[in-house]
Amino acid sequence: MEDESMNSFAYGDTRIGIDIGSRSIELVVLHKDTPARRLKAPTTFDPLGQCEKLMEGVNGSSIIATGYGRKLFSESFRRMNVSTITEIQAYALGAKFLYPDAGTVLDIGGQDTKVISLSQAGKVVKFEMNDRCAAGTGKFLEFMATALQVPLESFGAFALQSDRRIQISSMCTVFAESEATSLMARGERAQNIAMGLHMAIVQRTVAMLRRVGVTPPLVFAGGVAHNPCVVRLLEEELGHHVIVPENPDMVGALGAALHGVNRPASMLRL
């Protein structure tokens, strides 16, 4: 479990946001609009047990849960003052808080992709979410990194070592692996195959972005935002800079915590 305490604080004016995702769980503690603590743990096959560990020694006047496991968390922690918020709302709040001028939010997580269009006031104008297929998500990248025997954390940098760009025709995980295997059997460099897989994800993502509408600045959140190849290809396809927060996977938990704050938010760098 990763734990980064920012400073010491009293709990009277403290809000806790927790984002229970498919691959990881993030927790952010806000005290008077300032991050006091930031924690992260893998979801594993026991998400509630992981939540229990993250919550040890953490107290606040309210807990706001988001992510696919928010309802399970709310039911299991009834003894606490728990409310829930959708991932769309959480990422919109978190991104707008970090970047007040944000016009679009992209979140690529472990098993879904979300595109959110924001008004100048920070309201959700339009959104699209793909949560029915692993294609184009972090799970797809994880599966393909394993198939190419490359650590997931370095898969993006590995793809950037390619010397030519090839097209992967299928985004189905099973068929894409078969296609990658066939390419390797024909002598194609693994780096080029990795680049082709990244290109396929980005092309799918850009199609979603264009359906919703892209209004810069675009904030890229979620775990896949750590991948430098995805960021570079997005910028190439869109023709403008993509903003990646310092801790992109914490944006949802931050937004959840902000949902419990009843006063205007000032700019915060998480």
Topology:
Elements: E1 2-5, E2 14-20, E3 24-31, E4 34-42, H1 47-55, E5 62-66, H2 70-76, E6 82-84, H3 87-98, E7 104-108, E8 113-118, E9 124-130, H4 138-147, H5 155-159, H6 173-185, H7 190-212, E10 218-221, H8 228-238, E11 242-243, H9 251-259
Parallel strand pairs: 2-5, 5-6, 7-10, 10-11
Antiparallel strand pairs: 1-4, 2-3, 3-4, 7-8, 8-9
Overview of the structural elements:
With 270 residues, the protein is of the alpha/beta class. It is 37% helix and 22% strand. It has helices spanning 47-55, 70-76, 87-98, 138-147, 155-159, 173-185, 190-212, 228-238, 251-259; strands spanning 2-5, 14-20, 24-31, 34-42, 62-66, 82-84, 104-108, 113-118, 124-130, 218-221, 242-243. The strands form two sheets. It has a six-stranded mixed β-sheet, sandwiched between helices. A hairpin with a 4-residue loop joins strand 7 and strand 8. The longest helix has 23 residues, at 190-212. 44% of the residues are buried. The model is unreliable at 6-11 and 263-270 (pLDDT under 50).
SS elements, strand count: 11
Helicity range of the residues?
Answer: 25-40%
Strand order of the largest sheet: 1-4-3-2-5-6
Low-confidence stretches: 6-11, 263-270
Offer a concise description of the structure:
37% of the residues lie in helices and 22% in strands. By secondary structure, it is α/β, with parallel strands linked by helices.
Highlighted features:
270 residues; single chain; 5-stranded mixed β-sheet; 37% helix
